[in-house]
Amino acid sequence: MTRYVIGRLAQFVPVLLLSSFLIFMILHLAPGDPASLVAGEDASPEAIAQVRRELGLDRPVVVQFIDWLGGVLTGDLGTSYVNGQPAAELIMTRVGPTLQLALTSILIAVVIAIPLGCLAAMRPNGVVDRLVTTLTALPIAIPNFWLAIIGILVFALYLGILPAGGYASLTDNPGEAAKYLILPAFALASDQMAILIRYCRTAMIEALSEDYIRTAVAKGISRVRVVVRHGLRNALIPVVTMLGIMLGHMLSGAVIIEAIFAWPGLGRLLVQSILNRDYLVVQGILLLMVAWFALINLIVDLVYGGIDPRIRLGRREVAA
Amino acid sequence: MSTRLDALRRMPRTIMAGGAVAVLALAGCSPVDSAGGTGDDNQTEVGSSSGEPVRGGSLTIGRPADIVSLDGNVLGEVQLLYADAVYNTLVELDDELQPQPELAESWELADDATSITLTLRNGVTFHDGKELTSADVKYTVERVADPVVGAPQLAAFAKLVTGVETPDDRTVTIAFSRALPNIFDFLEMLYIVDQATVEGPDATTVANGTGPFALAEWQPERSYTLTRNEDYWDDELPYLDEVVVQVAPDPQTMVVQLESGELDAVSNVPLNEVARLEDGGWKVTVTDPAGSYYIAANVSDPALTDPRVRQAINHAIDRERFVEQTLSGIGDPTALPWPLTSPAYDEEIDASMAYDLDEARRLLDDAGVDSLSLDLWSNGGQAPLVDFAQILQADLASIGVELNVETPEVPRWRELSQQANYTGLLSGPYGSSNFSPASLFLLSRPFNPETNQSNYAGEAYTALVEELWSATDDAAREEIYGRLNELLLEESFVMPIATNNLVMASDATVHGWGERRPNGGFDLREVWVDEG
């Protein structure tokens, strides 16, 4: 097991290296010059050239990449062209808010989706099932930014019970933080939750139609026990895969929700940095996101083993 | 025409409107007449409901973007409020663009305007307690010439500085390579910084200025907190104890935050929300424009070398419609570079470039152009211009000109603009039109005789700008403005469309929010909150 994890972690290195290189090249190919953005709209061509020199942007791209890579290996992600702050510092201050929002959303999605999905699957095409499938079509069809705006209007403006935007840290002030979290977390969770309900329902229907379920029922085990112990356990495998993908998306893709709720997350930093052609910050964020995805994948694979002993990753598989 | 309205506008807010505002607001009438969109009537200001400012209290302000730097010399839209709160300039321009003392208590401009000697106010200290001396001024002036600082307007002026002398701690003499009667525009923009702080290891976390507020805390992308500078050199100011600036990147959310009481005051109100906020009884101020929207024509494009073709395009710009449809009626349509209040503005000359498609077609016929295909590179970050591109496209199509609209994202647009290698036309916003008219030609790229993005290098134009630069008396300047305005329309290498006005709004208990300095800074010194 440990060897397997170490092996998988070792595979990250070439993945990160290759993706960094590709990202670096693509960024530099995009039109737009960070020097001209730093120097300002009305700067003279000489001024822009001077800024380019001082930022080291006049060197060949490959040299810039190697320079950056050397920095990364020693823990230095470089500094922002825009404000001279260390890129690592800029990124780290955004990780907390992003994790807070993504994990809360996932939690909301899971807590609501799995019971509802199971309930719907217990009697396919029954009243509950039809209700659930119909209602879940709504959040999938409605863009979450629209839900976000409606949520702000209703809960912040008309009812005045939740703030329209802003952020507080869960570790500093949990009560305050929860207030700020509710609207964006629900907005971000809405479509993912609906998708997860449907996913869970389908997987459950499939699992419940298996022979072993019939056997379990024939043995006289209670209905709830059949569904939870035998059905859900098997249905969870595709659901966990889905959760992994969702979490990956939420960690990287909450840009619009972050902007609407003035949430100081990574998505906004990424978009701003791209617009400013702040290459090193973009590079740092994307590196982090690639690592995240890889790590989530690993965790998902490990969780499989916990759910289903048949695919537990023992020594034998690793040795093979 | 603007004289009377100017006088009205410049009356102190406390005299204007008075208690009537509250009554109007209650009656559901708009206290601000900004819907007109033409002439000056959108500048009416909301006065405070009672005279005496209240001291103390806290104000929470929403801004569309966070500051990018704590450096007072970094200029730009997002820095405006911060820089003016934490730092001071040497002089402050009043509404008539006349210099008033700030860090400098007096000054003397040489007769030939090639140098200025300033005497600094006594006993001014930075927030860390260090005393302000002439060395700080010398450092700041020399520093901003470096383009890496990120202040192109300051760098443009600083490049003309040939030397800074500091005979004693309170005296500074700045010498220029040429006559600079508009030097006060530079001093208005130049916030004095402390060398030890900006070059120190904590430059990205610590701010040290002489301004009315000190930076207490900065949480990037969330908020920053400014606290009253108890040792401020003006004992009377500021009124507020604390200002919290919150970042509100989504304009609609920002408006809701104002309405729900999370924010007391906001800037950059979306123009389509203005009428609704006014109806709801919020104080709304349309500030004086500091710039306009424009279309530049690349004169090195073979299709646009003939000035008659460029004039034809200029006549095909429906400026009234631009303001009505894309700016919700907020802004002044004008073909001249200036705000209507500028001494260089000339209504008669402006009217000669009317929207007239027949005239446009006639000019094309004159130039022997039957049909034409042109590109328009519209700045993707400027929604009004992106919308207007379609209006212009339809109008030009009716006179046989096909317009291909491209909307590059900002970095790409910036590159096209700076390298001036685009085809056809380019649209964007410019600033600095509210300073001394001479400064526009130095500070604003579309009008710069050397670096404009139209590749235009008319000798007559360069000579006239030179003449304006050196002119030291008002009568001479007046006469040059007229000739420049006519030449700009004749050559039509850059075509202003309408002024770009920023809208600010606040709760009814907030007084003084909406005052901006000519340098664009939001002036917080005299803002106060009526707690009752």
From TrEMBL, chain A:
<keyword id="KW-1133">Transmembrane helix</keyword>
<comment type="similarity">
    <text>Belongs to the binding-protein-dependent transport system permease family.</text>
</comment>
<feature type="transmembrane region" description="Helical">
    <location>
        <begin position="99"/>
        <end position="122"/>
    </location>
</feature>
<feature type="transmembrane region" description="Helical">
    <location>
        <begin position="12"/>
        <end position="30"/>
    </location>
</feature>
<feature type="domain" description="ABC transmembrane type-1">
    <location>
        <begin position="95"/>
        <end position="304"/>
    </location>
</feature>
<feature type="transmembrane region" description="Helical">
    <location>
        <begin position="134"/>
        <end position="161"/>
    </location>
</feature>
<keyword id="KW-0472">Membrane</keyword>
<keyword id="KW-1003">Cell membrane</keyword>
<feature type="transmembrane region" description="Helical">
    <location>
        <begin position="281"/>
        <end position="307"/>
    </location>
</feature>
<dbReference type="Pfam" id="PF19300">
    <property type="entry name" value="BPD_transp_1_N"/>
</dbReference>
<dbReference type="Pfam" id="PF00528">
    <property type="entry name" value="BPD_transp_1"/>
</dbReference>
<dbReference type="InterPro" id="IPR000515">
    <property type="entry name" value="MetI-like"/>
</dbReference>
<feature type="transmembrane region" description="Helical">
    <location>
        <begin position="235"/>
        <end position="261"/>
    </location>
</feature>
<keyword id="KW-0813">Transport</keyword>
<dbReference type="GO" id="GO:0005886">
    <property type="term" value="C:plasma membrane"/>
</dbReference>
<dbReference type="GO" id="GO:0055085">
    <property type="term" value="P:transmembrane transport"/>
</dbReference>
<dbReference type="InterPro" id="IPR035906">
    <property type="entry name" value="MetI-like_sf"/>
</dbReference>
<keyword id="KW-0812">Transmembrane</keyword>
<protein>
    <submittedName>
        <fullName>ABC transporter permease</fullName>
    </submittedName>
</protein>
<feature type="transmembrane region" description="Helical">
    <location>
        <begin position="181"/>
        <end position="200"/>
    </location>
</feature>
<dbReference type="InterPro" id="IPR045621">
    <property type="entry name" value="BPD_transp_1_N"/>
</dbReference>
UniProtKB/TrEMBL annotation, chain B:
<comment type="similarity">
    <text>Belongs to the bacterial solute-binding protein 5 family.</text>
</comment>
<protein>
    <submittedName>
        <fullName>ABC transporter substrate-binding protein</fullName>
    </submittedName>
</protein>
<dbReference type="Pfam" id="PF00496">
    <property type="entry name" value="SBP_bac_5"/>
</dbReference>
<feature type="region of interest" description="Disordered">
    <location>
        <begin position="35"/>
        <end position="58"/>
    </location>
</feature>
<dbReference type="GO" id="GO:0015833">
    <property type="term" value="P:peptide transport"/>
</dbReference>
<feature type="compositionally biased region" description="Polar residues">
    <location>
        <begin position="40"/>
        <end position="51"/>
    </location>
</feature>
<dbReference type="InterPro" id="IPR000914">
    <property type="entry name" value="SBP_5_dom"/>
</dbReference>
<dbReference type="GO" id="GO:0043190">
    <property type="term" value="C:ATP-binding cassette (ABC) transporter complex"/>
</dbReference>
<feature type="signal peptide">
    <location>
        <begin position="1"/>
        <end position="35"/>
    </location>
</feature>
<keyword id="KW-0732">Signal</keyword>
<dbReference type="InterPro" id="IPR039424">
    <property type="entry name" value="SBP_5"/>
</dbReference>
<dbReference type="GO" id="GO:1904680">
    <property type="term" value="F:peptide transmembrane transporter activity"/>
</dbReference>
<keyword id="KW-0813">Transport</keyword>
<dbReference type="GO" id="GO:0042597">
    <property type="term" value="C:periplasmic space"/>
</dbReference>
<dbReference type="InterPro" id="IPR030678">
    <property type="entry name" value="Peptide/Ni-bd"/>
</dbReference>
<feature type="domain" description="Solute-binding protein family 5">
    <location>
        <begin position="98"/>
        <end position="441"/>
    </location>
</feature>
